[in-house]
Structures are given as C-alpha cells and as structure tokens.
Amino acid sequence: MDLRIPAGGPALMARCLMRALLLAICLAPAAGRAADPPPIVITDPKEKTYRAALQEFVATAQFGVDDLAAEIGGRIRAGLEFSGLFSILEPEAFLGPVRSDPLDGGKSVVCTNWRQIGTDALVQGEVETTGEEARVEFRVLDVSRGCLRLVRKRYTADRRDAARVGSAIADDIVGLFTGQPGVSDTEIAFISTRSGSKEVHVMSADGAGLRSATNNRSINSFPSWSPNGQEIVYTSYRHRNRPRLFMLTRGRRSPGRILRNLDSGAPLYRGVFAPTGSRLALVMSLDGAAEILTVESNGQKLRRLTRNRVIDVSPTWSPDGKRIAFVSDRAGSPQIYVMDRDGSDVRRLTFTGSYNTAPAWSPDGHWIAYETRVGSQFDIWLIDPEGRENFPLVTHPRSDEHPSWAPDSRKIAFASTRRGHADIYVIDLNGEKLRRITQGGGDNTNPAWGPYRR
Amino acid sequence: MTGFVSSIEDSRRREFRWILACSGVAHLALLLAFTFSPRPGGTALPAVVRVDLVAAAPAAAKPRPIPAPPKPKKTVLPAQPTRPPKPKPKPPPEPEPAAEPQVDYDDLLAKLREEAGEVEEPTQVAGAGSAPPGSGRGVPVTPEVMAWMRSAKVHVTRAWVLPPGFRTQPLSTEIRVQLSAGGEVLGTRVVRRSGNPWYDESVERAIKKASPLPRPPEADEWIFVFRPGDLL
Hints:
The complex is a heterodimer of chains A (454) and B (232). Chain A is mainly beta and 454 residues long. Chain A has 2 domains: 50-178, 3-Layer(aba) Sandwich (Rossmann fold), CATH 3.40.50; 187-449, 6 Propeller (Neuraminidase), CATH 2.120.10.30. Chain A has 4 helices and 31 strands. In chain A, strands 2, 3, 4, 5, 6 and 7 form a 6-stranded mixed beta sheet that branches. Chain A has a 4-stranded antiparallel beta sheet with strand order 10-9-8-31, with no helix packed on it. By secondary structure, chain B is an alpha+beta fold. Chain B has helices spanning 2-36, 105-115, 143-159, 164-167, 197-210; strands at residues 173-179, 185-192, 221-226. The chains are: A mainly beta (454), B alpha+beta (232).
C-alpha cells in the first residue's frame, strides 16, 4: 500500500478548508438573525381609559378636615372623569384600604391588591390645615409597573380655595399618563342672560363654580383671556351705549375701560389677546367698514392690518402670535382668511360653504375651528391652517356656534341651541364625549376657554 | 503496464479520500455553526414570508417631546359641508341632545376578527421591526409557536390602554420581553422607542399588566411591536 501523500493533496485540502470557512462565515450572521423570534405585532388596543383607584385622603390634623379631604377627593374624581381618559374604580371594589395611610410612616402598599382589581393609577394623599392654610400632599403609583411612584407633590392653598387643589391634582395625573395635563382646573368665560342682561360669567371648565363677572345691566360680549389668565378683555355698551373695550382683572372689583386713547368716536367692536405678550387684535369701524388692527394693551403701537371697504372681523391668533386668521367678505361671502401679523401675505383658507365665521386657532397650532352655515343654522368644522384638511366636528339640526379651544387642544367648548335656548357644551376633538356644562338659566353663549392656571 | 495503471488508480483513490475528508470537515463546520448559534423556539416548518417595511426608529429619543396633536376621528363624522344655504323650518326643540347610534364598521370588523381568534400571522411579519427595510429574513415557526403568539397577542392587546390622543399618530415601539416557562414577565427592554415617552410607558405598562402571559413554547426573550393602526 502506497502511503505517500499525493502532490496535489495539501493544496486540495487547503482549498476545501477555505471553502468551508467561507461558507461558515457567510452563514453565521444569517444564523444569528434567524435566532430572533418573529415579533408579535399589537395594533389594536382595547382600552381607551386608564383605571384610577382614589383612596380617601387622610386628615392628619384638625377637626373639620375630613370634609375638606372628601371635597378634594370629589374634585379629583370629577377632574379625571372630565378628562375622559380615566375611569374611577369604586371603593367597594377595593381589596386594599379605602382610606390612604399617611404618606410617611404608613403601611407599605400591597401592590397585588390593587393589581388584582385592574388599577392603573393608585392615588393616595393627606390633608393638613394650619390656621387658614391647607396643605395637600399626594402621590401617584403606577400599579402595572410594580407600584412605581410617578410623583409626590404638595399643594399649599388658602383653606377656602383648597378644594380647587383636587382639580389641579386630577390634571397632574392626566399629565403623568399622557404627557399633556388635564384642563379641569381651567376656566371658561362666557356671556349669559340669566340675570336679564348679557353679562360676562366665569365657571370651571366642567361647569362648577359659576359666577358673574360683570353686572352692569348693559350689553357685554366677546370675552377674551390674557395669556396668563389674570385678565379678561370684553366689549361693553355700558359707556354712552357705544361699544368699548373693558378689562376685568383678578382681585380687582371694578373693571377698567382700556384703550381710551383710541376713543375717536369710532366703534371698537372687539379685542382679542395675543397668546404671546400683551398685544391685542382689534376690530374697529374705520371709514365705514370693520377693519382689523393690533395694539399694545396700554394703547401704544397701533397698527392697521386691513384697509378696504369690505367687512373684516373675528381675528384669532396663531399660538406663536405671528399670524392672524380672520373673517372677510371680500370675495362676496364671509370666508376665513389668514394673514401675517403685519397684515401681509393674506390667503383665503375656506372655499366650501357660503358663510364661514368665528375662527379659533388651536393652542397647538394644528387646527382652526370655525362655524359654517348649513341651511339656516351653523355647524362647527375644523380646517388645518394650510387648508389641506377640512371636515365637520359638530353637526346638529340646531345651531352650534363660537368654538373655543381648551388649552390642551383636546377639547372644544361651543354654544348650541339644541335644547331651545343656548347652552355651553364641550366635546373632545375626536367627536366623542359631548357634554353640556351650563344648566339653562337664560342663553349662554360666546365661550372663551382660559389658559392653564399654573 | 498493469503496475502503471494500478498506480494511477491508487493515486485517484487517495485523491478521492482527501476530497471525502474535506467534505467531512466542511459538514462538521456547518454543523458546529448551527449547533452553537441560538435557535428560535422549535423551528421546523418552512413558512411563507412577507416583509413589512417598518419606519426607521428616531436617531435618539428627545427628552420629553410634546406629543403630536390628536387627530380628529374622521370616520364617524357625518355629512358634507356644502349644502346650499336654503332656509328651512326649524325643527321642534329636543328635550335632550340626541345621540345617534353610529356604526363603526372598523371596530365591528376588529371585534369579529378577535372573536375568530384571527391575528396578524406571525410568519408574515418576521423581520419587521428588527430588520432594515428590504433586508427582512423570515423565520419559520411551528404551528405551536404560531398558536402561542396568537394567544399572547390577544392577551397583551387586552391589557393595553391607549387614550384617544395617541391613537392616530404614527408611533411604533419595539420591546423585548423575557418570559419564564410559566409565562411570567421576568424583564422588559425597550429596543426601539417611538419618540413619545408616554406612549413607550403605555407599552411597558401593557406588557407588565399582561403578566403572566399564556405559557410560551419555551422560556425565552420574545419581541413585541406596538403599532396602533390608523383606522381606530
């Protein structure tokens, strides 16, 4: 037997090994990728609302605090329900204690008790009063994530105003789960005839705490909030029965007339605060036609933006204060237009409908809500500022008017005559969760949703 | 002459042995490569593969960006705007705002699908999320694994809460979930963020809330992609 290695042997072996190695190198990454199982794709969540368990806040000091704790709890509940993003678990379903332990030194939370009843957010807190001051401290636990503490925060307030803290807490909770705080602690100004004349009224966004802000027995209209929520400018006929602008300021009793230096006799129909700074957009009658101007709230730096013989009214600012949408009948019928804040670059926005008015620019800048006439009444539509998308939000055989955005851009307030007299309603941007927030008492119109209060 | 011929045959036979040896080494190398690489749970049957193109993840998640605005739900909105403005008699006042029942066929369809236990076929989405567009490589899965993935999907879907504001935004989050043999969630790792931290948290919450999942085919790391459809 010949044991000699043939001359071609080592070369052939090397070639074979090289090929094997190459093959292995080529296949190795593919084998690694194939190791990942295919992903499970989840596309269709079944739940729209988180479940909150609200433990009664424990009163840690004086007599009478229990009532305050209950009131705060009620406001948290109402605020979360108003958001439409939370449902509240009833205390009867709790496996854990109904009342919160003190936040320091209390028993540790048994997370499984809350998990078993499907809780997403567990809210605990304590209330303490010292003289006229109330301190409310709360924390929110994310039950699904092992009772992870999302926040612990303390509010200090005048005891008479302490219930409001409940709304602020509810808005905080909404913010923790969605990134955008709720709006239950905001206010809506509107015009009501409940006292016999058209007066400015103010209420919480959910309709609670309604009170009148003017009582001059004249005609008052078009309330508009300053960006910090400390003032409301409105139009009143109380001075010589001519339209003039007045300003209400928090903490001051009597409203003051503003822009007296513009008092040339020309009617001043409306003032709208810019969302930035202290500038106002005005509607004035000049040369026999309604025109749009801007001015500082102290009357300085007046600038005329429109100059023609047609009607230009209803200005609304973009959130950056650089553009203004308004209504003009320059094309023969009232339509929505957009211009720069110096009056340049005027563009027509709406081309459908024969009568479009009352534009309101959303605080996030993405939409302009407006009224469009259908038959003899109005519906509320949305259009984006570039005019690409345009569709109805509120339609009803009766009139829906004066849309006004919540500061979170998730809700819109409007006035509707669907029950005969006019009431203020609130609806979510997706067309759901319509609710009436005024309960009759004359006609309630012209809602103006105020900014966040913090 | 005979000796010469026999020596040629011997030489060929030796060469043939070398080729045989090389082939053996190559097979051994391949066997080793497959043996020591991690395997997906029980892959046996080849399957049809479709590749979904998934948008690239943002380069870096921005610190708490403001979420995009909720897009109004168009499907439930009625009517055209451009009705001619003819005056019509006012209808009698209604005692309560009339809430008309609206049929949302998409919801209905989704419900029927769920009742039928129908889910996106796992084999059809193989490679989605992890592979770059166009380079997807499918992974064959056994019917058992497919059945488990289907029930895991139903289970997690039920645990996922997504408020309306998020629903129509183009968001996608990929999360890797370590499961025990009994289906307990042992750990999670978000491997591709959506750009919206609150959305990512909702995903993490859903996985943890769904624990324990149905018993998986094996204790392993499984991938979930949360991508809300725009027909919700």
